[in-house]
């Protein structure tokens, strides 16, 4: 957005926080309306009042489900089959504004947070182009959210990316997807962090949790239920590579127990 604005000769302000002199500078521009997306702070009431409430927040979830900082990752973690984008009226309360428009999409079975975020960003842009003019002209009547249906999506804890092999393989695969690209899912081998970028669920006889078996050269980890196949990993200080490529250079991996 900033690059496009500068290319068109539009004056751009980029304050670190909407307060003090930065807030006064925006108010002096006498804005007609506000639009924001993926903004990690509350918008001051003074700014909302300045535009008479003509404000839209683009949020990547089907509100009121997944209010908060990480709605895409939490939808994946929860195993939701669908998510979407909501255009809501911006309010001083976090993600609680009335719904102006909403579109649903299916979540792909192997889709990561980064991939789904890119897809929802494009959808959000299309919705803004279509619905923002209608909203500003009063042709859309917003509908209130049901607060009883609200769920919360706090910022991911990086420590939550550590793969606990006591958990079922399908849950671990969702953690990998939800934590990719950031803050990242991982395990350790001989004290070295091994980032897990892609993983899938595989069958097989039960084994001690965390035991590694090489099947067709690809490392599989015994989980609480099922096996987790390591399809793509990133050892510390190295490039991302297939699990098979990593296994070829990791001596003693067969039969080892992770984390180690």
Describe the structure.
It is a single chain. This protein has 260 residues and is an alpha+beta fold. It is 26% helix and 23% strand. It has helices at residues 2-7, 20-27, 45-50, 71-77, 113-136, 169-178, 243-249; strands at residues 34-37, 55-59, 82-89, 99-106, 185-189, 192-202, 212-215, 218-222, 227-235, 241-242. The strands form 2 sheets. Strands 5, 6, 7, 8, 9 and 10 form a 6-stranded antiparallel beta sheet that branches. Strands 1-2-3-4 form a 4-stranded mixed beta sheet. Helix 4 runs antiparallel to helix 6 (169-178). The protein is elongated, with a radius of gyration of 22 Å. The termini are far apart. The mean pLDDT is 96.
Which terms summarize this structure?
six-stranded antiparallel sheet, 3 domains, alpha+beta, single chain, four-stranded mixed sheet, Rossmann fold, 260 residues, Methionyl-tRNA Fmet Formyltransferase, Chain A, domain 2
